[in-house]
Amino acid sequence: MMRSLFSGVAGLKTHQTKMDVIGNNISNVNTVAFKSSSTTFSDIMYQTTSQASGATETRGGVNAKQIGLGVTNGATKISVTSSGAAQSTGDALDIRLSDTNTTNFFIVNNGSENVFTRAGSFYIDGNGNLAMTTTGYLVMGWQVDAQNPSVINKNTVTPLRVMQPANLTSPPEATTEASFSGVLDKYDSQFSSSSGYARSFTIYDNLGYSYTAKFAIKLEDATTGKYTINLTGVYDTNNKNILADYLNAGNTMDTIFGGDNTEKFTKTYPAGTGVTTTGNANSINYNGVTYTYNQSTKTFDNTDAGGTTTSLTLAQVCGVEDDTAVTAVTCTTDVDGNVEFIIDYAASVLQFDTKEGNLIYAGNKGEKTITLHTSLLGPNTSIVDPLEGDNINRALSDIQIDFSQLLAYDNGGTSTAVANRGVPDGTVMRGEGKKLGTMTGLSVSNDGRIYGSYSNGNTVLLGQIAAAQFANASGLEEIGNNCYKTTLNSGEFDGIGVDISADGSSMNTGQLEMANVDLSAEFTDMITTQRGFQANSRIITVSDTMLEELINLKR
């Protein structure tokens, strides 16, 4: 009689355990990446009252007589390999693991050991580490190769400190290429001015300092499609013309840009306007005073008997707005007595095909690029290494300027040519140079690679999130906080991890994995568990009643 009582008690305990599991599942229905559990019942050892006997020639065999002693919880299984649905968050550091052939886990460190999780809600902590938002456990992964920052060293997992000081900025780059594109229209009124058709672009040196290179395109011969382009100045951020400083130091323009080609501009003074020549090609009589042209200062100078020098600029005499590229000035008088000033500029030829409008060559025949020798400019070449004897401060680089995209067409008297820093190469600009960049954001690719985005347009690889895989993921032990650790039945972690993309799996950013709890199944199990609990309690009630009847035999 007592056996049924204890079977009922065993049934109550087992169904209570199952109800505890169901309650835990339902309470975690909104826990990120929670994995539901299920229980499996097992009957308890049977009491044998009579052993089985074999058959003889005259009698058949007799089965053993056994009485069961109740039920117990045979196993509690975690549905680790069943993924939850995706929940979109839009946060770049929320990552959902997708599994193709194997269940994957993030590797996190709790300060003493590596543990594993499917909850990919991460943030950047105060030390710049990628960490779990719920526990602060550090996310583990692989670092970039110090010798080749584009390569990941997949040797051992370490904390991903993606916001360390070295990663907060991206180094500047010197401009090495530039380009001109668009249309030149010979009827554009700008070609009739002394300054020509002005264009400019910004360049960077290797330290990230910016300069503005200014050019003037001039029409040399409309019939033959010949234009010239000269460099009129290179200005730093303080608007100081470092090209002028270079020329004032005794250097020549053709070492920077222009070569042996010259472009001439003529300024005419009609007879009787107070300007005459003196018989010297470099001298004029200007309102009764003789002035001689000085190429080093690019002024017309007069020194009186007392040693006082008075100067007239090219802008005053000839209307030249920018004299940087001027290499010579010649004064002549024509047959009608008109005074002509012929101003030579250091320039390069842009020769166009007058039939098709395409550029034939720029500078030298057969070439469509011209080198701007900016490496010679500025104070960046003034410091010499006393040991090696080489320039150690050459921050500006020479720039190859591509003119192949320039066209000479009728565009209604308006030119549309533009100067660009860099050369188009697919969807990016090659050789454009960059200033110092500050980090503006982080992104994670599908294979777990973490990239930093910077204000100068750079994208830099900072590390890669590693994944862990186990021979028996269901054998992992839950330790709370959405984390697991290895057991003897799960398989060991090798300390290296795997690339999640190796088997076609991926990491999806802006999403989290939801709990895989099936509420319909849980409530159904709750009903059957409740009924099982009621039935086992009835066993105890009936057994108690029978015991009461037995006791009542003696009154």
Short description:
By secondary structure, this protein is mostly beta strands. The chain is 13% helix and 39% strand. The protein has four domains: 2-48 and 65-79 and 517-551, no CATH class; 86-167 and 438-513, no CATH class; 172-260 and 347-434, Tick-borne Encephalitis virus Glycoprotein, domain 1; 262-346, no CATH class.
Q: Report the uncertain regions.
A: none
Question: What would CATH call the class of the largest domain?
Answer: Mainly Beta
Shape-level CATH architecture of the largest domain:
Sandwich
Percent helix, as a range, is 10-25%
What's the domain count? 4
CATH superfamily of the largest domain: Flagellar hook protein FlgE
Written account of the structure:
The chain has 555 residues and is mainly beta. The chain has four domains: 97 residues, no CATH class; 158 residues, no CATH class; 177 residues, Tick-borne Encephalitis virus Glycoprotein, domain 1 (Sandwich), CATH 2.60.98.20; 85 residues, no CATH class. 13% of the residues lie in helices and 39% in strands. A hairpin with a 4-residue loop joins strand 7 and strand 8. The chain is rod-shaped. The model has no long low-confidence stretch (mean pLDDT 88).
What is this structure's SSE topology?
Layout: H1 2-27, E1 37-43, E2 47-50, E3 65-67, E4 71-78, E5 86-88, E6 95-98, E7 104-109, E8 114-117, E9 122-124, E10 130-132, E11 138-144, E12 152-159, E13 169-170, E14 177-184, E15 197-204, E16 210-221, E17 226-235, H2 242-248, E18 262-269, E19 275-277, E20 283-286, E21 289-294, E22 299-303, E23 309-313, H3 314-318, E24 326-333, E25 339-346, E26 348-352, E27 359-362, E28 369-372, E29 399-408, E30 418-421, E31 423-425, E32 428-430, E33 437-444, E34 449-454, E35 459-465, E36 467-469, E37 477-480, E38 483-485, E39 506-509, E40 511-513, H4 519-551
Parallel strand pairs: 14-29
Antiparallel strand pairs: 1-4, 2-3, 5-40, 6-39, 7-8, 7-11, 7-36, 8-38, 9-10, 11-12, 11-35, 13-33, 14-30, 15-16, 16-17, 17-26, 18-25, 19-20, 20-21, 21-22, 22-23, 24-25, 26-27, 28-29, 31-32, 33-34, 34-35, 37-38
Helix pairs in contact: 1-4
